[in-house]
Design goal:
The chain is of the alpha/beta class. The chain contains eight helices and seven strands; from the N terminus they run αβαβαββαβαββααα.
């Protein structure tokens, strides 16, 4: 599997997990999980008939039709979730993810949710906390010149701290991501001339990322 993003998601999957891959695209993650015996079972789903057809073709190429069922579904609507405990949502926007997870009765048996959103990471963390899932682990990966936080949520009566919601978990492995954000924010600040509030938000963000870097490395980014 040549996607750093999908590889990291697979590292958050345990052998006892029964996985529903929502928006599976070409089913590469599901094939990797089953071929390497990384989970009990995997279900590949997508809202796009064309994308799911590609996934089915890939599953057939690997002779895994008996091991990876597929369902054409808008999120969880057409899926019987009672036999599964883990959801994967990758490669879609935050609002789409939140909409998929808004049907709470579908989440009764779901103990773990793995998310790689394309945007609005603080919103995703906040909403998952709100519906009863705690951000237990997070790894930022670079894939095709973009950084993606891969978030592991577990069902738990515990809330993340405000700074964890906004900025993610403090981890030494995420140093390149913090440095990227600081440089990017500095560039945006230079480009913004009149939006005072937006400038102040970027300054505040940089303050916290600098704080993270200093705590981990003992230095700030110059």
């Amino acid at each position: 599997m040549n996607s750093n993003r999908l590889l990291q998601i697979s590292l958050f999957v345990d052998h006892n997990d029964s996985v529903i891959d929502i928006g599976c695209d070409h089913a590469l993650l599901d094939i990797y999980l089953i071929e390497n015996k990384l989970c009990k079972k995997a279900l590949a789903t997508d809202i796009s008939e064309n994308a799911l057809e590609q996934g089915i073709n890939n599953i057939k190429k690997h002779d895994l039709e008996s091991y990876i069922p597929t369902v054409l579904s808008d999120g969880l609507k057409n899926i019987e979730v009672s036999d599964y405990n883990t959801l994967v949502l990758s490669g879609m926007g935050a609002h789409t993810i939140i909409e998929i997870l808004s049907n709470k009765h579908k989440l009764t048996n779901i103990q773990k949710i793995l998310i790689s959103s394309n945007n609005d990471y603080p919103l995703v963390r906040h909403e998952l906390n709100r519906i009863g899932y705690y951000l237990e682990d997070e790894k930022v990966v670079e894939d095709k010149n973009h950084f993606y936080p891969i978030m592991k949520f577990v069902k738990k009566k515990k809330k993340n701290k405000i700074n964890e919601i906004r900025y993610g978990l403090l981890k030494i492995s995420n140093i390149p991501y913090y440095e990227y954000l600081i440089r990017n924010n500095r560039l945006l600040i230079k480009q913004i001339k009149h939006a005072f509030f937006k400038k102040m938000c970027l300054y505040l963000d940089n303050h916290y990322y600098q704080k993270y870097l200093k705590k981990i490395t003992g230095r700030k980014l110059k």
